[in-house]
Amino acid sequence: MAYIQQPGPVIVQQPIPTQVMTINPKNSLNKPDVGGQGRDWSNGLCACTNVGTCLLAWCLPCIVYGSNKQRVSHLERTGTPDPEHGGVCNSDCMVYGAVAACLGIACVLQVGNRTNLRRRYGIRGGGCSDCMVSCCCIPCALSQEEAEIELEERAVAQLQGGYTKA
Question: Band of the pLDDT at 112, cuts 50, 70, 90?
Answer without folding.
Answer: very high
